[in-house]
Amino acid sequence: MILCGFPLRLHYMIRCSDEGYLLAGQTSPGSTGTQDAWLVKLDSLGCIFTGCTNTIIQENWPVNSISDFSAFQNQFGNTIEVSFYAYGNEKGNIQLIDITGRTLIQRSIQTLVGLNKHKEFTGELSPGIYLIRILTGTGAITRKMILE
Question: From the CB of residue 123, how many other CB atoms can be counted at a distance below 10 Å?
């Protein structure tokens, strides 16, 4: 999206208790290398100002409730530490997937609003490239991980 000549990146879209939306993001780096954050509150019609007639929010837009997802192997090599930020309380799964697409580990989780941390025991997995995936009712997010 472009606004006033600046490319915008939407990072979060959260449904508010008043049926409106809170949008947050940043501008892409310009020629000076700087970025600006932005935050916009919309009413239930997708308007910034009361009484506008433009509806820009659609109910079928996908909204992923997980962000800031990271995963790393601990120093002893037998567990993976997974952390992410959740925007809702919902049930989900953490999966460890090998390079052939086979799910090796799947655990049920309950996300809570805010920072979530989980440790997953990997046992005696061979060194290699794996995928860590978090699945919830509102989306999925995947990261590549190299186990040593």
Answer: 9
Q: According to the 3-state scheme, what is the secondary structure of the chain?
A: CEECCEEEEEEEEEECCCCCEEEEEEECCCCCCCCCEEEEEECCCCCCCCCCCCCCCCCCCCCCCEEEEEEEECCCCCEEEEEEEECCCEEEEEEEEECCCCEEEEEEEEECCEEEEEEEECCCCCCEEEEEEEEECCEEEEEEEEEC
**Averaged confidence pLDDT in the chain:** 76
Q: How far apart are CA 134 and CA 141, in angstroms?
A: 5
Of 9-13, 22-26, 49-53, 101-105, where does the model show the most confidence?
101-105
Note whether 72 and 62 are within 8 A (CB). Answer: no
Residue pointed to by tokens 């990261």: 143
Highest mean pLDDT among 61-65, 73-77, 112-116: 112-116
